[in-house]
Amino acid sequence: MFDIDRWNEIWNALAKNKVRSLLTAFGVFWGIFMLIVMAGAGKGLQNGVSEGIAKFAANSAFFWSQQTSEPYKGFKRGRYWHMDSEDLQYLKDHVPEIEYITPKNFTGRFGNSSNVIRGRKNGSFNVKGDYPDYIKIDPSTVLKGRWINDLDIRDKRKVCVIGEKVFDSMFDVNENPVGQYLKISGVYYQVVGLIRAETKINVNGRTEESISLPFTTMLQTYNMGNQVHFLAITAKSGVPVSVVEDKVKEFIKKRHSIAPTDLQALNSVNIEKEFQQMSGLFLGIQILTWIVGIGTLMAGVIGVSNIMLVIIKERTKEIGVQRAIGATPRVIIGQIMLESVVLTTVAGYIGLSMGVGLLELVNRIIESAPAQGGDRAFFAHPEVSLTVAVSALCVLVIAGLFAGMIPASRAIQIKPIEALREE
Amino acid sequence: MIQISNLHKSYAMGSNSLHVLKGLNLEIEEGEFVSIMGSSGSGKSTLLNILGILDDYDRGTYYLGGKLIQGLNETKAAMTRNEMIGFIFQSFNLISFKNAMENVALPLYYQKVSRKKRNQIALEYLDRLGLKEWAGHLPSELSGGQKQRVAIARALISKPQIILADEPTGALDSATSFEVMDILKDINNQGKTVIIVTHEHDIAAMTKKIIRLKDGVIEEVIKNGDLQLFKERILTE
Ligand SMILES: Nc1ncnc2c1ncn2[C@@H]1O[C@H](COP(=O)(O)OP(=O)(O)OP(=O)(O)O)[C@@H](O)[C@H]1O
Ligand SMILES: [Mg+2]
Description:
heterodimer; A: alpha+beta; 12-stranded mixed sheet; B: alpha/beta; 6-stranded mixed sheet; 4-stranded antiparallel sheet; 10 strands; binds adenosine-5'-triphosphate; binds magnesium ion
């Protein structure tokens, strides 16, 4: 194995026909290169998307009301309705599996007409009513100041928390927004915090373009009575969100005389389910990657097998001489297999390194690009795990062995006497 | 050393077969220097290949050093060749990308002798054949005679009892041919059995026994003492 003559022999066999060896090696190189790049890109997509939603509590679900789609108990279909604070209390009392439950309300953004004014600056932003617990479900980073707290809720304080775009258009770059006032739809609110969303899923508009008021403040100022537009819940650990989701829907529909079969009236998103669907998608991408990658690799391997066959044909005489002077079939087979494995592994290793190198380069470019809050692409850290790299190498060695098998058996089928015959 | 009785060998040629050796009997003692002669196509190479376990035969028996050589698998055959037989070919059959020393050392490589040791032994053999300075040269840089001497060194290195040579001088001019024959004579004098195939009478005349093949059997055996007679005869022919 480590005899220098053995490697000398391999080198000579391959060097005799450089162009063909290179082309063949390129086949394997390309196969593994593609495999690594695709696996890495798939992983990058997965990382990007996961990072986008991973911060969402995985055990959360969200609800909002829409027009009914079925007539029920004397109501016509197409009825407008709202959830309300009593629903909230009822759910707290009757669904013990709920961990957090927070309502969220919205005011519409009316076209482009500005609804927010500060001195000579003005802008048009989403205004939302929130509870302190909301950032436990859909986390945000507090960049300055604080998030809405219980006192804000209790006292219906006129305070607000703003997103980064709001800050950009309403404040100067070096200004500290905390403590300043914004006039929103004619009412002054004191800014108490600046936040950045950690997730990329937007509820009624991007967080960076939104202003959050204490929920109770919003109810009062906008005359919303006890309406609830949007409900976010998380399930206690160990309880599947779907169970809670089903219960919540059942109760709310019952309380608002909505047909149990009405699928439209109460809409919901279950993050757990989304995650599962996404993992299914990524599994699919992974499988596809391997199928395509291995297919390309196979083509390369067949090429290697082919070149080995030609090499053996050219070396028939030499192999005959070696056998005449005492090389056993095992020696010959070992030699050819080793040649084939070396060719595939070296080519493959280069492909592997270059694939990983490319991914690393892309990663650097992505990371050096300015990270702008919600504007980040759904693509992050393209990478191949050690397992993928190691299995790719294993595949290569095995492929090399396969590639060597046919040529090797061909070589020992040639009787020494036939190989030695003078032409 | 070699006992062959009733040896048959035919080659399949499509649907019919070509019967080359037809019940050949042959005995060669240890230390003999034998040449096999005969017209082209008489089966000289066929016989030598069977002797060298490069080919198998159809019927009869072949004992080599008291061991029946029959139906050996390729591994056994290769090992027996490696241990007992040294081959010299008409076209030298050196490995083109190995230098003289590495070529000579090759049989020891198959015996798993370490590289350092086998190269050292190879150098000794090259020295004996006056080729020490050429040890690092590739076959393409050597003359025909030098190549054949390298091939002889390769045949000798595994210390075989028998040297088989198919037309060892076939590709050499007569002066070089005689040099090679002198070397083979030396080897024979050291006690090795040497069997060569040749169609050159003066080459055959340098051996101690001539076996003439005709029609698949041995037509005539000319022993030591009769060589003078043989020489005279070929001069008149
Ligand atoms: N592998 C083979 N297949 C078919 N026929 C063969 C084969 N090898 C040899 N022959 C035939 O067998 C006969 C004997 O061949 P062989 O090579 O033994 O002759 P030879 O005495 O060595 O002749 P030369 O002096 O020309 O070398 C020839 O007719 C040859 O054509
Ligand atoms: Mg012949």
